[in-house]
TrEMBL record:
<keyword id="KW-0378">Hydrolase</keyword>
<protein>
    <submittedName>
        <fullName>M20 family metallopeptidase</fullName>
    </submittedName>
</protein>
<dbReference type="Pfam" id="PF07687">
    <property type="entry name" value="M20_dimer"/>
</dbReference>
<dbReference type="InterPro" id="IPR002933">
    <property type="entry name" value="Peptidase_M20"/>
</dbReference>
<dbReference type="InterPro" id="IPR017150">
    <property type="entry name" value="Pept_M20_glutamate_carboxypep"/>
</dbReference>
<dbReference type="InterPro" id="IPR036264">
    <property type="entry name" value="Bact_exopeptidase_dim_dom"/>
</dbReference>
<keyword id="KW-0862">Zinc</keyword>
<feature type="active site" description="Proton acceptor">
    <location>
        <position position="143"/>
    </location>
</feature>
<dbReference type="InterPro" id="IPR011650">
    <property type="entry name" value="Peptidase_M20_dimer"/>
</dbReference>
<dbReference type="InterPro" id="IPR050072">
    <property type="entry name" value="Peptidase_M20A"/>
</dbReference>
<dbReference type="GO" id="GO:0046872">
    <property type="term" value="F:metal ion binding"/>
</dbReference>
<dbReference type="Pfam" id="PF01546">
    <property type="entry name" value="Peptidase_M20"/>
</dbReference>
<dbReference type="InterPro" id="IPR001261">
    <property type="entry name" value="ArgE/DapE_CS"/>
</dbReference>
<feature type="active site">
    <location>
        <position position="81"/>
    </location>
</feature>
<dbReference type="GO" id="GO:0016787">
    <property type="term" value="F:hydrolase activity"/>
</dbReference>
<feature type="domain" description="Peptidase M20 dimerisation">
    <location>
        <begin position="178"/>
        <end position="277"/>
    </location>
</feature>
<keyword id="KW-0479">Metal-binding</keyword>
């Protein structure tokens, strides 16, 4: 059991509701920064050393909160942004409790987990609980779009730390995450030559046809056994049925199990760029999140978390997850990383997004116990 009293699930849910009802779409820097400022003020009031890094590029502020102590800290990192636009609360997803489920935009991914991290650190400081290591809490504004402005900060804080805990949502069966696929994105743009689709068909060069050919080739690169998947969406092109389309394009998502697989796939896709016979294809992008590979150090963290979970009345299986997180960055640097320590639930990015609210206290207690006892 953690030495810190983190309270009941009912108490945690009551405060978490305020976070959920403070809508924080990634694209609204002011809204995200306002929630960041609330966290900073509350943590500073109980003794945390606060650093606010101003947002840039249209994204919100980053918060770094440190507890007193010497030696390499334990880093716990979450994000405050969600995929949901303003007005979702009133139009389609009001905060509500239905039996064992609490619904609301971003509650599962990942306000419940980020709040658990904030709450655990705040209570450790408020109750003056001794910890084996100092703690660094990092809350970021842009994870849902690939962490473009926070990645360098995440990596810098990870390199200063002895271990990294990521309270992303729990997976199937309440599982945490010890490995993740790497994630990459491309944008493919194709320019052709317009012509009348009836009178001058032979003069045209269809960008849509060229795109269709490349989409099929990219789809064929999927290798499920090797853990490689590709997906082309959204796609665009053309103006009218009677005009040979001069422009087309698509975005490409890919997932890989290893850096070697990433290098191979990137080379295959980039080789599709061409300038030939009236068709010009340009491709931009690459690997956004390196694979998070399971290591003995990560498994040692998992074993510690599993024992803590049992003391709080639940089993904690582990999972290899196809989706990426900020844990990919720290794991790729060789820092022991344990992910998926947030609340149980389902529906990330979906209209039925929810948590199993009764699990808030036991899951938060496990996270808090790790923050108290990880020795590095």
């Amino acid at each position: 059991m953690p030495s810190t009293d983190i309270g009941t699930s009912e108490r945690i849910l009551a405060e978490l509701r305020g976070w959920v009802e403070h809508e924080t779409p990634t694209t609204d820097a002011r809204a995200v920064s306002a929630l960041t400022a609330r966290c900073a003020a509350e943590l500073e009031a109980v003794g945390a050393a606060i650093t606010l890094i101003p947002g840039r590029g249209g994204y919100g502020d980053n918060l770094v909160a440190r507890t007193p102590g010497t030696g390499k800290p334990v880093l716990v990192a979450g994000h405050l942004d969600t995929v949901w636009d303003h007005g979702t609360l009133t139009s389609s997803m009001p905060f509500r409790i239905e039996g064992d489920k609490a619904h609301g935009p971003g509650i599962y991914d990942m306000k419940a987990g980020s709040f658990a991290a904030f709450h655990a650190v705040r209570e450790i400081l408020r109750q003056k609980t001794p910890t084996k290591r100092p703690i660094t809490l990092l809350l970021t504004p842009d994870e849902e779009v690939g962490s473009p402005t926070s990645r360098a900060l995440i990596e810098a804080e990870a390199q200063r730390s002895c271990a990294v805990l990521i309270p992303e949502p729990a997976g199937i069966g309440g599982s945490c995450v010890t490995a993740r696929k790497g994630v990459g994105r491309f944008v493919m743009r194709i320019n052709g030559r317009s012509a009348h689709a009836g009178g001058n068909w032979q003069d045209g060069r269809s960008a849509v046809v060229a795109l269709a050919q490349r989409i099929l080739a990219i789809h064929a690169l999927t290798d499920l056994e090797a853990g490689t998947t590709t997906n082309c969406a959204p796609i665009w092109g053309g103006t009218r049925p009677n005009v040979i389309p001069p422009e087309a394009g698509c975005e490409i998502d890919f997932r890989v199990a290893t850096l070697e697989a990433a290098d191979k796939l990137i080379a295959q896709i980039m080789a599709m760029a061409t300038d030939h016979d009236g068709i010009t294809i340009t491709i931009e992008g690459g690997l956004n999140r390196p694979p998070m590979v399971e290591t003995p150090a990560a498994l040692a963290l998992y074993d510690q978390a599993k024992i803590l979970a049992q003391t709080h009345g639940y089993n904690l299986p582990k999972q290899y997850r196809g989706g990426g997180s900020d844990g990919n960055f720290s794991a790729a640097l060789g820092i022991p990383t344990l992910d998926g320590l947030g609340c149980t639930g389902a529906g990330a990015h979906a209209p039925f997004e929810h948590i199993i609210w009764a699990d808030l206290a036991p899951r938060c207690a496990t996270l808090c116990g790790l923050l108290e006892t990880v020795e590095g």
